[in-house]
Amino acid sequence: STPIAKQLASIKALGKGSDLEKAFATAALVYNNSADAEGKLSKAETKNLLQTQFGGFIRGQENKPKYQEIISSLDEELENKIDFEDFMILLVSLTLMSDLLQEIKNVKTTK
Questions:
Q1: pTM for the complete prediction?
Q2: E-assigned strands of 34-82?
Q3: What residues does 77 pair with on adjacent strands?
Q4: What angle do CA 82, 84, 89 make, to 5 degrees?
Q5: Which SUPFAM superfamilies does UniProt cross-reference here (predicted)?
């Protein structure tokens, strides 16, 4: 498979894109690279993708009730699939509860 950086570089509109635009494009590419022909992921694939691609954000969350609720919902009803919109909602939810978010907020910028 083609590396994400190369896929990003091939998107002309992102040539002068902002960091935020590139971040969202990366999320879309990671999702699309794993999705089926209908553009969806099984819940098991979603869980695996979160664990492999979002580990820094979910590490240490295992004992939090909201995290357990999200993960258990991926373990239930395996016939249902996740679309990109639902995947992004999962990413935002996991980011908001993450310990890593506080560390990111504490990063000082230099000018």
A1: 0.82
A2: 41-42, 81-82
A3: none
A4: 85
A5: EF-hand
